[in-house]
């Protein structure tokens, strides 16, 4: 048996991507444009993107809320996972990021399914309160605001809405009670909310992929 190491984990990740996902010119172009624009390399891994697609399909989602667009990589995966008449509403705080994302989303052929709302999540989310409920919510923005985003996920969802929260392990730092980094504290507060808030039932999984050691939480609005 191969010993666990970062090199071995990356080799397994490359194998899984080659075996189950393959190359995708539109997604590759979205990442390339994101890099060219000087944006951080914090988009989900290809295996994570395919997972979002599968979750959208399995849940039968027609309305998806994404908090944190970045360069549109995960947005494309989500938009591909819903019907032609479905809608992804994605929130991005940086107008320049939104411009890059819009170009990539349109080039990928899913532009008609995607609406980008520009502004900080805490300011944009209340404006969605009068719209139809969302079937799936993907939270991948500033970790300090995870509890705010989870509260709005419950408010804007319905019983049965699936909530996905990215980056909940932070390289193992989430389990270190002495770590007072604001992002780690925000992740920990979000997980505690999922445990204590009766609106949710949840679990979390560690991941080790192209983005390193991290994890995702999956919650159901009950």
From TrEMBL:
Instruction: Give the GO biological process terms.
Output: methylation
Gene3D superfamilies, per this entry?
Answer: Vaccinia Virus protein VP39
Q: Which InterPro entries does this UniProt record tie to the protein?
A: Cation-dep_OMT (IPR050362), SAM-dependent_MTases_sf (IPR029063), SAM_O-MeTrfase (IPR002935)
Q: Which GO terms describe its molecular function?
A: O-methyltransferase activity; S-adenosylmethionine-dependent methyltransferase activity
State the UniProt keywords alphabetically: Methyltransferase, S-adenosyl-L-methionine, Transferase
Record's superkingdom? Bacteria
Enzyme Commission number(s): 2.1.1.-
What PANTHER family does the entry give?
CAFFEOYL-COA O-METHYLTRANSFERASE 3-RELATED, O-METHYLTRANSFERASE-RELATED
Its recorded name reads: Putative O-methyltransferase
Q: Which organism is it from?
A: Microbacterium laevaniformans
């Amino acid at each position: 048996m191969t010993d666990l190491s970062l090199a071995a984990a990356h080799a397994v990740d490359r194998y899984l991507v080659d075996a189950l996902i393959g190359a995708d010119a539109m997604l590759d172009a979205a990442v390339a444009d994101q890099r060219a624009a000087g944006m951080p390399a914090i988009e989900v891994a290809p295996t994570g993107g395919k997972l979002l697609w599968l979750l959208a399909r399995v849940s039968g989602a027609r309305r998806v809320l994404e908090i944190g667009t970045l360069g549109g990589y995960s947005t494309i995966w989500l938009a591909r996972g819903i019907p032609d008449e479905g809608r992804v509403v994605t929130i991005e705080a940086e107008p320049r990021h939104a411009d890059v994302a819009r170009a990539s989303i349109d080039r990928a052929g899913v532009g008609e399914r995607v609406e980008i709302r520009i502004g900080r999540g805490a300011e944009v989310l209340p404006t969605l309160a009068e719209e139809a409920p969302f079937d799936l919510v993907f939270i991948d923005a500033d970790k300090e605001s995870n509890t705010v985003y989870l509260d709005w996920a419950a408010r804007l969802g319905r019983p049965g809405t699936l909530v996905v929260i990215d980056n909940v392990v932070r390289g193992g730092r989430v389990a270190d009670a002495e770590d007072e980094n604001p992002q780690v504290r925000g992740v920990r507060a979000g997980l505690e909310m999922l445990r204590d808030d009766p609106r949710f039932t949840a679990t979390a999984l560690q991941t080790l992929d192209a983005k390193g050691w991290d994890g995702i939480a999956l919650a159901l609005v009950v």
